[in-house]
Batch of 2 targets.
Target 1
Amino acid sequence: MKYILMMTGTKADFDWYATWSKRDLQAQFAFMHSFNKELKESGVLVATEGLAFPNEAKMVRAAADGSPITDGVFPESKEFLAGYWIVDVETPEQAYQLAARVSAGPSPKDRGNQPIEVRRVMSGPPPEML
Amino acid sequence: MKYILMMHCPKTGYDTFGAWPQKDIHAHIGFMIGLNKELRESGELVSAEGLASPQQAKIVRAGKDGTPVTDGVFPESKEFLAGYWIVDVENPERADAIAAKASAAPGPGGAPMNMPIEVRQVMSGPPEEMS
């Protein structure tokens, strides 16, 4: 069963992240690096990616002629995807366990553990829809 | 340059989709299959995934002892990731053009949905000075 573990944050969260000291960032990178290595070695890692900061995010819509209309204005409340892991595990509990590990990753001050959204990844559309 | 193209929807998004006439659902899925094929053939597709319904989404936090605490309650306004493409393209304009194509996927009655697609660059790793 493939699950996606998503880290998200508002623009304010990213602004806060940008103020972390180099030492705190290095501690976080080291944590992520060894977490990824462990997932890779245990064979559960399918993919992991980190996204650019939300100030680079754009919304794209097709105009009537199909050409892209881009817009960079988002509501304050919007949660941006910061990064994700896709893991292939036997049970949802294993996915939750891994999410809890990420949730407790190092951060400069105690803001409480970070929420991680977990959802199953589909291998394709349901057969009855094909 | 790698870009991620994200489709978002509210909690009710999947229910709405499920209520479309089957013909329209077929046309929509057929369009997506065709788009993926085109991107694979042009060598631009890195990956594409569709996520399960938001009804199955859980928020997980570590408890004090590190064990997972799960919660399935989300604000009504929350936008859920429905699916995404990662493409490896020559320039940002090409990513926008592919996003526009996905945006115009057929909806009910076959009309283009012109849905919003969030586009952002994917990093290959932490900035060099940090690793």
Note: Residues 34 and 40 of chain A are 10 Å apart (CA to CA).
Target 2
Amino acid sequence: MELKSFNLLIVGIGGQGVIRAVQILAWAALLDNYKVRTAETHGMAQRGGSISSFLRFGNEVEGPLIPSGNSQVIIALEASEAVRNFRYANSNTIFLINNKVIIPPSVHLMNMEYPDLDSVQKFLEQISSNVFIINGHEEALKAGDIRSLNVYMLGVLVGSEKLPIKQKTLENSIRRFVPKKAQIINKIAFQNGIKNGKIIKEEIE
Amino acid sequence: MSVPHFVVSNPGSHVILLGNEAIARGILEAGVIIGAGYPGTPSSEILSTLAKMYPYFSHLKIEWSINEKVAFEVAYGGSMSNVRSVACMKHVGVNVASDAFMTAAYAGARGGMVLVSADDPNCYSSQNEQDNRYYGLHALVPVFEPSTPQEAKDLIKYAFEFSENFQTVVLFRTTTRLNHGRGDVVLGEIEEIKREYGFDWDRSRWVCLPSHSRVLRLRLLERLKEISEFANDFPYNYLKISKKRLNGKRIGFVSAGVPYAHLIDALNHFGVKDYVSILKLGMVYPPPKKLIKKLFASVDKILVVEELEPFIENILKQIAYDEGLSKEIEIHGKDIFPQNGEFSAELYLENVADFMDLEYNGVQVPDDLIIMPPRLPILCPGCSHRASFYAIKQVEKKLKTKFVNSSDIGCYTLAVYKPLESLDTEVCMGGSIGFANGISKIQSKENPVLAILGDSTFFHSGIPGLINAVHNQNSILVMILDNRSTSMTGFQDNPGTGIKITKELGTKVNIEDLVMGCGVSPENLWVEDSNNLLEMIEKLEKAVKADGVRVFISRHTCSLVEANEFKTKKIVPPTVKVDPEKCKGCLICVNKFGCPSIIFDENEKKAIIEHDTCRGCKVCIDVCIHDAIYMEEE
């Protein structure tokens, strides 16, 4: 409860569940008695556009925006979106990167290059030594639905023990926000995420 | 969906709300009965949240009005009838409502009357970033501005009481970051208003003809004076004086709205909050002169932290001048913070550090930067607008000419981007037809003038332009892209669907009847399903070649709405495939049509349709000139 502020950024593209993931965390943070703020930036596109969603909680948070260099954790549901948001990171930031790059269709039209997973990783490693590529895509499918990707990544975060929110509270919040028929799948995804997160925990510098 | 309805939880509940949900909750708590608005980002969720409350609170009378002017008038009619009423709109919507608003300011409020304006610094989803605080100054109406969702809820609840106490309309100004940010909120009691409702037949007040308005204006000025005096005791204006000095200077800040919240974060970041004096305004107009003078007496220099125009800064400078203090006190604002865009969180850190001589090191940028191509906003897979614009382009090509495509506000504005690139104007709601009227007076027949707008935009303010064209015989082709939805702002229904905001059945307005009622002759009216590409091209060519005022209704339900309908009705959309034998890799479907579901396999040099995202609209079957795209039979 002595926490002044915790800043977290989840990025991805429209339809991946970025906003829902932040809603789940925000509600959990509230249940743990923190002041909570969130904000989203997204373009006009309904699907497929870049989305970044900020979460801030603690006893000293007023505004929803995170200053650059001040995000403790950045979760990318689509890998290249982490590059777009690198300025929020510092040398201690923990990057949890889903191992999938989704190339925007406009790249073809504009004849431009798009970074692959390797170059995303190399780039982020210039900023922080805590860059973790997560096989979220496969794990979500393994749990039973690609739409459990966001919850799987939250599991990884919990397993890494870098989130000052109780696991139980987060589980309550997931139950509240996930549709009934997807509860079991998301529970599996979350538990598997935690297992993976525990491995990562040992590697965080 | 199992998403919890926090907005209707019990008083005392501690919940997380979107800024707009918090505003809706405050409106509910204030005992408001009438709520009207027109959809517009970032304001839309206020009314739609109220509509979601309706099943629990049936006293609410909520509507999407035809445009913002009518919305304001609907709400003001409520105020005239002694009920608390609210009108909600985006900032540019207030321009539409301003005709009613400016004179309603004179007659004032009977039942509490609040106009919510959602401003959009950085134009996240708007055509400009106008600062609507000036509407308060312009109309001599008080302007409230909240900083957090909690304050938004509390402040708007209070605004209705305030409105009745001073008999004034209140302008409640918000910005995107507040509207679309979430925060923790403690819910309050829902007020029960016990009074007689009904119109009061006070003609000296509601009939604003010159002899009445001269008197009403004097009352307005008197009211403003009273409010100015009260501003010093306004419960959401806070003055905190610090006696401490930093580097020998006594420093003050003045702020309001979202910038106030980020200012506090910045001061906390440096651990200097207790070293500075802060005036926080919950009512930015009229200013609390006594509080400002007290601040002046306690500091050597002041930084006003506000987005967009120097609204508060100029007020402060004026007061400093009046008090003979303009030489004694330094007032900074737009010399430090920019006058455009939304302030990023680090901008507060930089500028606060600079202003207070503190150390701040920005972020180090890595040497090897990756240039990230943007994810451009694009029309969705299966969007009927893509088909309409593709047809327009085909006719243009066939007639070997260039159309003037005067267009409008809506999803279809995205057709300005590659690959369609077929939009020439977009300024304001309904403007497409107005501009086309003017352009057609100059442009020769070789370049036909089209006015292209959506169904909701046509209802909003396209109709007067069409009547104008008929009456003045301005030869234009109006193309109504009727996708049965106000999609860009969240799929709101409109008179074309006949469904009300509460999802109850209303009366449907038929666009064809409306168009003919405006004086367009039946032989100059064409209707076609947007996704029937070949028929579209054939009919459109005729429409372009015809004389006089012509209307072409290109109709197909918004693909996202349709996809949801299919889901509910368990309809499986057709499977569309590319036959790799026939595909020549000509790239027309990818680079000219540009449906995001069609991708190109660089190795095989063939197009592929992604089944996950394809909505089965089948338009690409007609787009392909090699007959390589086909519908798979069951």
Note: Chain A touches chain B through 60 residues (CB under 8 Å).
